[in-house]
Amino acid sequence: MSLPYILVLYYSRHGATAEMARQIARGVELGGVEARLRTVPAVSSECAQVAAEIPAEGALYASLDDLKHCAGLALGSPTRFGNMAAPLKFFLDGTSSLWLSGALVGKPAGVFTSTASLHGGQESTLLSMLLPLLHHGMLVSGLPYSESALLETRGGGTPYGPSHHAGADGKRALDSHEAHLCRALGQRLASLALALEKSRG
Fold first, then answer.
1. For 164-195, how does the pLDDT look when each residue is reduced to its tens digit (9 = 90+)?
2. What is the CATH number of the domain that holds 187?
3. What is the CA radius of gyration of the chain?
4. Is the pTM of this model over 0.90?
5. Distance of alpha carbon 9 from alpha carbon 31, whole angstroms
6. Disulfide-capable partner of 160 in 7, 97, 126, 135 (CB 3.0 to 4.6 Å)?
7. Helix/strand/coil (H, E, C) string of the chain?
């Protein structure tokens, strides 16, 4: 039997959401669980997939099996008019078989996002990503205010999940509070996954 892993699944156009995903993966591994980084291909109005089967660099593309067999999920996207990006939505729209089988029921999940402006839809994007996870019966985890970075941040960070203010040019690096909150979500998901596995054992 393979070891449990937390799937860190994201779409990133300019790299900020990908860096958040790497910080969350660090937190997962600090929590004693393997992290599996996966992304999704870009989509176009002309066809479903315009990219090669294996990306030239970065994380591999996610499969339904990656999602089916995970012990928990961190889902991330940049904001698109206050909503998740189309490539991530396209992937989630293809998970009906997992919904029908109940494959994700009872597994912990959290969400994260990056935006160009500080009030550019961070919270609504996070909430948009939570909706399909609730339909799948996942156990949603945010960030508690015992994480002092939530009160101290001058950039991103919400109780709904980590967020990042990338700036208009998309080049603002994660600050220390934003990175800390990403790692905190990773550790939280790892801890929840281990506790749930122990309770089932």
1. 999 999 899 999 999 999 999 999 999 999 99
2. 3.40.50.360
3. 16
4. yes
5. 18
6. 126
7. CCCCEEEEEECCCCCHHHHHHHHHHHHHHHCCCEEEEEECCCCCCCCCCCCCCCCCCCCEECCHHHHHCCCEEEEEEEECCCCECHHHHHHHHCCHHHHHHCCCCCCEEEEEEEECCCCCCHHHHHHHHHHHHHHCCCEECCCCCCCCHHHHCCCCCECCECEEECCCCCCCCCCHHHHHHHHHHHHHHHHHHHHHHHHHC
pLDDT per residue over 18-32, tens digit each?
A: 999 999 999 999 999
C-alpha 20, offset from chain centre: 9
- Provide the terminal-to-terminal Cα distance of the chain, rounded to the nearest Å: 14
CA dihedral 62, 64, 68, 70 (to 10 degrees): 0
Residue with tokens 């690096």: 173
- Count of domains observed in the chain: 1
